[in-house]
């Protein structure tokens, strides 16, 4: 069955960087778009970024544009999120999610999430 | 595109019919999905393309609507349905989620 396992979260100081990973299994990773979605403590879901099945298209929420970069390594079935210039507003659980299709449509599988805390 | 969900919370009894609405800021045809998130867990897809039930989801859940106005219904609320529900559009990027509706038992 589809499995997504995020890693790389932790406590980081403001202004520093962090890279999240999402290991995928149980499906043909290279055929599907992939997303990052985050949830600040006690808040709702916020879509962060999407990458198309072949990596040719990427899009970001305005709140992270220019600071975060989504990428994928199909040889390792792994999705990444490089986060730079982190601020307190980036504190959240970060979920990776698989799209139904090659780009964006609906998110039909989710990981368990990894917590990022930005604090001095 | 913004999606506005209401109400933000509701309390209902077991067996009650529960309805949540989601209004888009512009026409998104049927590009609207619904998710369930139980406390401390990842979201789960329930309804895609406004009215299609995801595989394995109980038939008491349903969705309808087109254009800018959408509804999500639980026909007979069960204790295991206590959760927060979110709508999400995919008409274009950036994708956006509604603010969520917290459903609990009266």
Description:
The complex is a heterodimer of chains A (120) and B (106). Chain A is mostly beta strands. Helices cover 0% and strands 51% of the residues of chain A. Chain A is built from no helices and eleven strands. In chain A, strands 2, 4, 5, 6, 9, 10 and 11 form a seven-stranded mixed β-sheet that branches. The mean pLDDT of chain A is 97. Chain B has 106 residues and is mainly β. Helix content of chain B is 0%, strand content 51%. Chain B has no helices and eleven strands. Chain B has strands at 3-6, 9-12, 18-24, 32-37, 44-48, 52-53, 61-66, 69-74, 83-89, 96-97, 101-105. In chain B, the strands form two sheets. In chain B, strands 2, 4, 5, 6, 9, 10 and 11 form a seven-stranded mixed β-sheet that branches. In chain B, strands 1-3-8-7 form a four-stranded antiparallel β-sheet, with no helix packed on it. In chain B, strand 7 (61-66) and strand 8 (69-74) form a beta hairpin. The model of chain B has no long low-confidence stretch (mean pLDDT 97). Chain A binds chain B through residues 35, 37, 44-47, 50, 59-62, 95, 100, 104-108, 110-113, and chain B through 33, 35, 37, 41-45, 48-49, 54, 84, 86, 88, 90, 93-100.
Q: In summary, what is this structure?
A:
The complex is a heterodimer of chains A (120) and B (106). With 120 residues, chain A is mostly beta strands. Chain A is built from no helices and eleven strands.
Secondary structure elements and their pairing?
The complex is a heterodimer of chains A (120) and B (106).
Chain A: E1 3-7, E2 10-12, E3 18-25, E4 34-39, E5 45-51, E6 58-60, E7 68-73, E8 78-83, E9 92-99, E10 107-110, E11 114-118
Parallel strand pairs in A: 2-11
Antiparallel strand pairs in A: 1-3, 3-8, 4-5, 4-9, 5-6, 7-8, 9-10, 9-11
Chain B: E1 3-6, E2 9-12, E3 18-24, E4 32-37, E5 44-48, E6 52-53, E7 61-66, E8 69-74, E9 83-89, E10 96-97, E11 101-105
Parallel strand pairs in B: 2-11
Antiparallel strand pairs in B: 1-3, 3-8, 4-5, 4-9, 5-6, 7-8, 9-10, 9-11
């Amino acid at each position: 069955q589809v499995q997504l396992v995020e890693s790389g979260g932790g406590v980081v100081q403001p202004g520093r960087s962090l890279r999240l990973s999402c290991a995928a299994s149980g499906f043909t990773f290279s055929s599907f778009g992939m997303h990052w979605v985050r949830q600040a403590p006690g808040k709702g879901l916020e879509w962060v970024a999407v990458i198309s099945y072949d990596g040719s298209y990427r899009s970001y929420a305005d709140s992270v544009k220019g600071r975060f970069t989504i990428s994928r390594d199909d040889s390792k079935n792994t999705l990444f999120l490089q986060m730079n210039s982190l601020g307190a507003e980036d504190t959240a659980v970060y979920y990776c999610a698989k799209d139904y299709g090659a780009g964006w449509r609906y998110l039909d599988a989710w990981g368990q999430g990894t917590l990022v805390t930005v604090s001095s | 595109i913004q999606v506005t969900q209401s109400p933000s919370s509701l309390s209902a009894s077991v067996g009650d019919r529960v309805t949540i609405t989601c209004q888009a800021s512009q026409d998104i045809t049927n590009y609207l999905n619904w998710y369930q998130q139980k406390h401390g867990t990842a979201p789960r897809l329930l309804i895609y393309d406004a009215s299609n039930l995801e595989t394995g989801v109980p038939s008491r859940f349903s969705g309808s609507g087109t254009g800018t106005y959408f509804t999500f219904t639980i026909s007979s609320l069960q204790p295991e349905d206590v959760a927060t529900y979110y709508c999400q559009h995919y008409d274009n990027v950036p994708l956006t989620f509604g603010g969520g509706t917290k459903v609990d038992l009266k």
